[in-house]
Write a structure and sequence with these properties.
alpha/beta; globular
C-alpha cells in the first residue's frame, strides 16, 4: 500500500529555519537509505536543489551520504537524487521527500511520500491540499510532529 507521511514543523523549532530543515531532510535520507530505499528529493527550484546538495556535501565524514542532482552522478544512481519541479528522477526511486512549497503532488508516482507542514499559513494550506490529493489517490496517510530537544 502507498503511504504519505506529513511531518509537522513546529514554530520556533530547529526545523523552522532553512538550515534546520535541510539538516532534518539529511537525517531522514540517512534513515531511509540505511533501509535500502532510493530517495528522490523535490525542491522548489534549481537554486534550492543546488543549495541542498551543497548542504549534503558540508556534512561530517561519518554523516556523508552519496547524492547527486538530477542528470549528474553515476549511471546507476546514488542513494539520494535531488531535483525540482518539472524534473523526474533519472533512476527508479521508491520514496520522494517533498521540500517544494507548491501544490505539486506525487500521487501514484512513488510508493512512499514524505511531505511537510510548515508554519507559514500559505504553505500550510498547500500542504493540506496535497494531503487531500493523497487521500483521494488511496494513500495511507499519517502525520508526525517533529520532536526536538528542549533548549
Amino acid at each position: 500500500m502507498n503511504t504519505a507521511t506529513f511531518y509537522i514543523i513546529q514554530e520556533g523549532s530547529p526545523q523552522d529555519s532553512t538550515l534546520g530543515w535541510a539538516s532534518y531532510v539529511h537525517f531522514l535520507c540517512r534513515h531511509f537509505s540505511a533501509q535500502g530505499a532510493k530517495v528522490y528529493i523535490n525542491c522548489d527550484d534549481k537554486i534550492a536543489a543546488e543549495q541542498l546538495a551543497e548542504h549534503f556535501w558540508q556534512q561530517e565524514p561519518n554523516d556523508y551520504l552519496a547524492h547527486n542532482l538530477v542528470g549528474e552522478g553515476p549511471k546507476s544512481g546514488t542513494p539520494v537524487e535531488i531535483g525540482f519541479a518539472g524534473l523526474k528522477p533519472s533512476w527508479n526511486r521508491q520514496l520522494v521527500i517533498n521540500m517544494a512549497n507548491n501544490a505539486a503532488t506525487f500521487a501514484n508516482s512513488f510508493a512512499q511520500v514524505v511531505d511537510f507542514v510548515p508554519c507559514e499559513e500559505k504553505a500550510k494550506q498547500l500542504a493540506r491540499e496535497r494531503y487531500k490529493i493523497y487521500r483521494q489517490a488511496g494513500y495511507q496517510l499519517q502525520t508526525i510532529e517533529i520532536q526536538h530537544p528542549e533548549s
